[in-house]
Each structure stands twice: as structure tokens, then as C-alpha cells.
Amino acid sequence: MSRLEIRDLHAGVDGFEILRGVDLTIESGEVHALMGPNGSGKSTLSHALMGREDYDVTGGSATIDGTELLGLPTWQRAAHGLFLGMQYPVEVPGVTVRDLVDAAYAARGNGGAPSDLPDRLRDEAARLEITEEFLTRGVNTEFSGGEQKRLETLQLAVLEPKFAVLDEIDSGLDVDALRDVARRVEAMTSERNLGVLAITHYARLLSELRPDRVHILMGGRIVRSGGPELAQELERTGYEGIAAELGIEELSVEKPKEADPFAEPGF
Amino acid sequence: MVTNFTTDAARALGGPDWLIARRVAAAEQLQSLTWPTPADEIWRYSRIDELDLDRYQPLKPEVVGEPGTERAPGGGPLAAEAGERAGLVVVRDGRVVHHELDESLEAKGVMICDLAMCTEDDVRGALGTCSDASPDAFTVLHDAFLAGGALVKVPAGVVVDRPIVVLHWSEGQGCASFPHTLVVLEEHAQATIVERFGSPNQFHLVGGVVELLVADDAHLRYLSLQEHGPKTWQIALQRAHLGRDATLRSSAVALGGDYARLRSESLLAGESAESNLLAVYFGDGQQMLDFRTLQDHDAPRTRSDLLFKGAVEDDARSVYSGLVRLRPTAQKANASQTNRNLVLTEGASAESIPNLEIEANDVRCSHASTVGPIDDDQRYYLETRGIPPAEAERLIVLGFFDDVFHRLPVASLAGPLRRTVIEKVEHRG
């Protein structure tokens, strides 16, 4: 059993604080949903956890089984068992999913990729209804939104991390792809105890990927946590309803726009 | 002004009378030549100002040897690496030292030999067709010291189904050598030529010329691999003349040399001729790889396509300067040129200058050019999968070249050529 523990996380961009103290603990095999309106800091959380260069962590900690992740380079966070499924997976021409998985295993040491990797890639492709041709192309190049998210899920399955942060994995998905992806992720939580933080704007993902806990992020903080019923409540009341109930005025933490000198009258 | 490269030295190289006369004529022309400078547009960004020809000597006649005395029976160690082939020519310092050809092709009239040994007047007459049509100081220097070279002639209607391999080796500290390849495909002939250019780690100047004459409805696949030693300078011309319905599918992989310049040109002289030029280049250390390309359309319905992709790191530099010329005769022609560059370090740089010269009014033409560092998002994406940054960059660079490898004229050579590039990429820094 493993534990991903986020404590009092503060993070932002260009000196502007977006996350203002986030606390979250996820155990192996659990699915946590993090929901929030646009601009509430959902993507900032995923990139701050993964160590994207343009996000600054200004306080707090994030550990897997006691190992602090926040000072590590991105690839080492991944090697420690953290996976980020991206909202917009990046096209990398000429680099196949096989190249990518081989390189990831090689970096971990332990003798590189398992010898049955080609079989596992084929099996996973079949489970996720990915045509084998996609395995021989550069990752995400000329893929539809659904194909990209299926391929993210395939990588998640083959790389076997302890925890997966899935950043709006439901965006750009048709109903079939959403179901296939959600079911595969759910299966991983029981088959090999994957812990999941599913970041989403909409509750529809959660009818397929059933969460143990639901958290609502507003203004850079988790303002409410609860069981699956919280997602249903949110469906009924919307984010405004929750905000009104909690007396929150600031739903989003938008970075103020740079002042435009040419907008000054008389210029 | 060119002290070491005298008419007497040109004459002394021996060979048949016609070749001596040809050299002497060029050598005399050489004495009155104005030497290029970076101020000439076609030499802009080059390192021509660093070239001091006086620091090189022509090879001594006794080193080059007389034509016809092949001094490398079997072709030597290079031949062992040549792989599956229909024929092989090994050229050392511009002189053929070994040649062999499948007997059945010989019976069909396919000819492989040292240019200097050629007895057919029409083939001899073809020598210089391409370089004379696009001369510069270095083609004149080349002609003045041309000792021989690889000649491949495929007669009308003959199809050579396996590659003919040509291996050039140039050596001699402080010397200059002038390898030549003349490929003549007569009407309806088909062939594949694979050339490799190499030299040791010596201060050496290679002034090579490759002439590809592709007659009406003939089809040539041509692949070259340039792996010169790190101190070698190359100033070379590769030029093809294409007849009606002829096709050229050409690729160049350029990795070696201190300064390695290649002019790669296609003249589409016959209606519906087609030229496809590909290149992959990777420069590191202090080296400079310099490409000047020309897609010259001089007949209706001609098509040309060009894709050159390169990467530079350390303090390496690259130049791509390409011209698509659509002459008034080139109605309904279709041309495209694409040059893409990755600049991997602060000290490295790449120039990319695509040019169009359109004199016909009913043509299609496109061009694209990019120069830039590795995309941060791509690197981050691979890092999120657990791949360290240096390995991520290696994957991205090799992936960047991938579409060129997929389009190589001979698919079975994609693997070996890709491995050669990987080796160079992995010995980075």
C-alpha cells in the first residue's frame, strides 16, 4: 500500500499565487475526484505536482510514501510512481509509444523494459480499442481527442505508476471513448491498486469512474470534501450553489492581466 | 594566384591523352579565376574566407597511380560493408581501385569502370554535362585535377534491380582529392546507386562532383552518405539532369567534415520529369554543414519536391539556401521545398533561406522553413513519463528525422542509415 500526501501546497505562475494551501491524501486503490470551476487551480495542481518548469511551488509538500517529490525533476517524480495524464497530450513526431515506454523503463534501471512489453502493448491496445497502427506512429500526431486519451490510458497501464493524476481526461472525448478510458482506469485501481486523482470540470466522468472521495476546489483551496453524493449535489446546484452555501465569493483565481499601456486614454 | 595547383601538376597526373588535355584546359582557366568570397550571395554564411588553397597540395601522380591498375583486389575492408549489391566501385583519391559487376548485368551492357578507362566516345562526351551547366571555382579546380572516377552506365531499357555501391575514400594529410561519379541512365533504364564518402581525421580537401544523367523515362534512386573525418573540408556538387518522364529519388545523409558543403541540384529538362530530394544532417563540435539546393524546372508539367531536415548542437552551424526556379517553359509545374532545423544548444546556429524564382504563370509552388530549439512541451511530455531530459531530447531529435527515413528511396536502407545517425547523435558533446 502506498500513500500520496499533499500538505498545504502553495503554487503559482510568475509570482502570482493560484494554489493557496491544498491538502489531500490518496491511498492506493482509491479514486479521488477533484472538481472545480474554470480558473480554480485544477491544472495548476497537476503541473505543480509533476514539476512543470513554469509553475513555482512556494510552500508545502507532496510525498509518495514519505519521499518528497517537490524538489525532484519531473522525470524522477514519474520514476517514483507519479503519472500525469494530460488534458492536451503533446504531439511528438517520430517517437512511438514503444520508444517512449522503453526509454521510461530504461531510466528506472532494474534491467529496462519487461521482456513481454510488446505483448503487453498489444493487449492493452486491444483492451482500449486502439488500432495497432497507432502504436507505430509518433505519439499523439494526427490523433483525434479520443485516440489521444486512449493512448494516455495505455501508457498509464503499461508504465504501472502508483498514482495517476488525470487532468480533464474526459475533455474532448465521445461517449464510447469516455467509457473505455474510465473502465480501464477503474480496472487498474482494483487489479493493481492504482491510486487516482481525477481532475474534472463535469460530473459525467464520475458516472463511469466511480470516486471514493470528491473534493471541490475553489479559489485555490479545497473548500469541501465528501463521498460520491457530493458530485450529485454539485450536479444539482452548480458551483455557484456550493459557493453561496459556503459564503465564498471568489470562485476562480485568475492571474490579473498585464496592464496595457496603449489602453491609457490620451496615448 | 593558385600556386600549388599548377598546369604542370594537372598535366602530371597521367591517364589517357583526352583526359590530360581536359585537365590542362581547366588548369589554364583556373589561373585566371576570381576566387569566391562570402560577399558572393551563393557563398554567404559559408566559411570560404577560411580556405587557404595554398595549404593543400594536389595528390602526387605516384600516389594516385595509373588508371587500370586496380590496387585493392576485392575492394578492401570497405567492400565488406557494402552489403547486398549488383555492382561495386571503390574509389580512392579519385582513382578507381576496384570494381565488380554482376555478370548477367555485364552481359546486358551495363558498364562500371574508371572514367579514365572509358573508351566510348559518347560516355566520355557526357562527362562534365552537369558541372559545366553549373560551374563555380571548385568545379574548375575539380576538372583540372580529375584523375578518373566512378562511371556507371545503364543502357536503354535495362533494369538493375539491386543497388550499385560506390565507395569513395580520400586521404593524404594536407592534400586535395577530386572524386567524380558519372551516372548515365539511358532511355527507360532503372538503377539504384548508393554512395559513401569518407576520409580519415586528416586535414584534407575533397572537391567532389556527382553527375546524374537520367534520360527519357529512366528512373534513378540515389542515396549518399557523407562521413568525412572531422578535419576534412568538402566542397561538392551533386547535379542531375532529367529527361521526359524521368524520375530521380535522391537522399543525402551528411554527418562528417569540418566544413562540408554540398550543392544539390536537379534540372528538370524534359516534360513531366520528377525530382525528389531528401536530406538529413547532424552537426556537432565546431563543424559546419552547408547546403545549396536548386530545383530548376525547364519543361512543362515537371514536379519537384525537397525535404531537408537537420539538427546542430555544440557550436556547430548549418546553412540551407535553396532555390526553386520555374522557367517560362515550366507551365503546370509543381514544386515544393521544405527545410526544418533543430538548434539544440545556445552556441549552435542554423540559417534557412528558401527562395523562389517564378517566371511561368500557371504553376504550383510551396515552401516552408523553420529554425528553432526543441519544443519545451514535447520535452515535458516525455519527462512526465519518466524519461530524463537528455534522453527525451535524443528521442525528439531522432523522431524529428523520422519522416525523412520513411521516405528514403530504398526502404531497406532506412534501418542502417538511421543507425548511423543515431551513433552520431549519441556521441554528443
Summary keywords:
heterodimer; A: 267 residues; alpha/beta; Rossmann fold; 4-stranded antiparallel β-sheet; 10 strands; B: alpha/beta; 12-stranded mixed β-sheet; 10-stranded mixed β-sheet; 11 helices; 22 strands; 22% helix
Describe this structure in words.
The complex is a heterodimer of chains A (267) and B (429). Chain A is an alpha/beta fold and 267 residues long. Chain A has one domain: Rossmann fold (3-Layer(aba) Sandwich), CATH 3.40.50. Chain A is built from seven helices and ten strands. Chain A has helices spanning 42-50, 74-79, 97-108, 117-127, 145-159, 175-191, 229-246, and strands spanning 3-13, 16-27, 31-35, 56-64, 67-68, 82-85, 163-167, 195-200, 213-218, 221-226. In chain A, strands 6-7-8-3-9-10 form a six-stranded mixed sheet, sandwiched between helices. A four-stranded antiparallel sheet of chain A has the order 2-1-4-5, covered by helices on one side. In chain A, α6 links the parallel β7 and β8. In chain A, α4 (117-127) packs across α5 (145-159). Chain A is globular. The termini of chain A are far apart. The model of chain A has no long low-confidence stretch (mean pLDDT 91). Chain B is an alpha/beta fold and 429 residues long. Chain B has one domain. In chain B, 22% of the residues lie in helices and 38% in strands. Chain B is built from eleven helices and 22 strands. Chain B has helices at residues 7-12, 17-31, 61-64, 76-80, 103-107, 121-126, 129-133, 137-144, 376-384, 389-406, 414-426; strands at 57-58, 87-92, 95-101, 111-114, 150-154, 164-169, 175-177, 180-185, 190-198, 204-206, 209-214, 219-227, 233-242, 247-254, 259-268, 274-283, 288-297, 303-312, 317-326, 334-343, 349-358, 364-372. In chain B, a hairpin with a 2-residue loop joins β2 (87-92) and β3 (95-101). In chain B, α2 (17-31) packs antiparallel against α8. Chain B is globular and about 65 Å long. The mean pLDDT of chain B is 93. Chain A binds chain B through residues 50, 52-53, 73-75, 78-79, 83-84, 86, 89-95, 99-101, 103-104, 106-108, 138-139, 155, 159, and chain B through 375-378, 380-389, 391-392, 395-396, 398-403.
